[in-house]
Write a structure and sequence with these properties.
mainly alpha; 11 helices
Length: 283
């Protein structure tokens, strides 16, 4: 007699289909069967050695590796060159591995963008030594994150620019990339509001309009540095002028010496460790 007991997939727990004839399937799909096969192939850790990486860790590393391939292609050739096969080749994995992790190219581009923002935010937080008790210095440091002060920031700016260009002709990507809530402008406006509450800002300023100008201006000036149209010193002078209008009585602390200014043909970082809206994200 046929076993009528309800069977579930040992990988995901979903019920398996009942076949018309033959033995009932063990797994609900080929994907789960492949996962189980990879788990069986994973060697056991040596006695006394570090534990074997969990499947979730391996999956996260593979997704990160594929995302980094998207970043490199975007920075060097633009997102139009980022086909699934090209991404797989750049990541040195098979096309099937890419398709296993990402259902579509759109999902891959969105996830790569999310990872880039997370990395950019983590690095920015580590580089900014100020807090809201020093609104002028904090705002100046935040704006510096929009400039290609080193190879990592220059690389990230190229990738964001490639996403922006693609969003002009890709409505689905534009919905993700061009965030309606404008978190960067809101962050800058909040920092200005702190200085305003402490009486450090010029009277009558509109912090929302000032934030819009500072963010868009810093991004555009950063691109000018990438193209070699302006020097980093010139760009910082412009930003300092606008910050001086907002904080006329602020104490100007000296900046740390920047790294050499990247040029338009600087090579991107071989393994970059970088939100929607052009430019980095900072909390």
């Amino acid at each position: 007699m046929r076993d009528e007991k309800k069977r579930t997939c040992p990988v995901c727990g979903k019920p398996t289909a009942r076949p018309g004839r033959g033995r009932p399937p063990v797994y609900c799909s080929r994907s789960c069967q492949a996962r189980a096969y990879r788990r069986r192939r994973q060697p056991l850790p040596a006695p006394g050695g570090p534990p074997a990486p969990r499947p979730t860790d391996v999956r996260a590393r593979q997704r990160r590796r594929i995302a980094e391939a998207v970043w490199r292609i975007a920075a060097e050739q633009g997102l139009d060159a980022a086909s699934m096969r090209r991404i797989a080749a750049e990541a040195r994995v098979s096309l099937r591995v890419v398709q296993y992790h990402f259902d579509s190219k759109h999902a891959l581009l969105v996830d790569a963008l999310r990872l880039l923002h997370e990395e950019n935010e983590r690095l920015a937080q580590g580089r900014i030594p100020y807090d809201v008790t020093e609104p002028f210095a904090l705002l100046r440091a935040v704006l510096d994150e929009f400039l290609p002060l080193d190879e990592q920031r220059a690389f990230a700016l190229r990738v964001f620019t490639a996403y922006y260009a693609r969003s002009l002709t890709d409505p689905l990507l534009a919905e993700v990339f061009l965030a309606a809530e404008q978190p960067l402008e809101r962050l800058v406006a909040d920092i200005i509001a702190v200085g305003e509450a402490a009486g450090h800002t010029a009277p009558g300023i509109d912090r929302v309009h000032e934030a819009d100008l500072l963010v868009s201006g810093a991004v555009g000036l950063g691109l000018d540095v990438l193209h070699g149209r302006r020097s980093l010193a010139d760009v910082r002078t412009v930003l300092e002028y606008h910050l001086g209008r907002i904080f006329p009585d602020a104490i100007r602390t000296p900046r740390p010496d920047p790294d050499p200014t990247p040029t338009a043909d600087s090579a991107p970082a071989p393994q970059p460790s970088p939100r929607p809206n052009t430019g980095p994200s900072t909390n």
